[in-house]
User: Which sequence fits this backbone?
């Protein structure tokens, strides 16, 4: 169970700070919800407290773990399918894990593909979303500005 003020990651949406825990009556059912204020993107999300484990909600990485994320971003790209549809499904599966290094891997691979050839519209959206998810967590992990972190990601991926 998390408490108000905890910094958590909600897979596929990003990281934020729990600003409240409220009881809500929705569709005839009363449940407790974390009210999460996402760090990057100005969004608020309600997460059911009783299913947060199943959803994959976890604590934000520590500042020390940023080094590992930067290593993932600077490593060689993962071998991926030439078929954009298959590549999209594989990347979506990685994003759904909610693991920081998996998200960083998707960002790295799509950024590098985009430099060589244009991404499909779906992959462009996926890259933007993956970057937002990654940056939202890094903002809370190291208390840096979004623009600085975006620049750090760019340098790590592109050398």
Assistant:
């Amino acid at each position: 169970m998390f408490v108000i003020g905890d910094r958590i990651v909600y897979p596929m949406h990003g990281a934020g700070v729990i600003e409240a825990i409220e009881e809500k009556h929705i569709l005839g059912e009363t449940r407790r919800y974390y009210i999460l204020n996402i760090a990057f993107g100005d969004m608020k999300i309600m997460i059911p407290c009783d299913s947060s484990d199943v959803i994959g909600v976890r604590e934000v990485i520590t500042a020390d773990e940023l080094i590992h994320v930067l290593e993932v971003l600077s490593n060689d790209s993962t071998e991926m399918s030439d078929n954009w549809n298959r590549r999209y499904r594989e990347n979506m599966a990685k994003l759904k894990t909610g693991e920081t290094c998996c998200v960083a891997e998707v960002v790295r691979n799509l950024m590098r593909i985009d430099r060589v050839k244009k991404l499909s519209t779906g992959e462009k959206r996926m890259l933007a979303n993956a970057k937002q998810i990654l940056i939202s967590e890094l903002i809370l992990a190291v208390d840096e500005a979004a623009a600085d972190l975006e620049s750090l990601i760019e340098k790590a991926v592109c050398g």
Q: What stands out?
A: The helical segments are 52-55, 66-74, 84-97, 100-116, 121-142, 146-158.
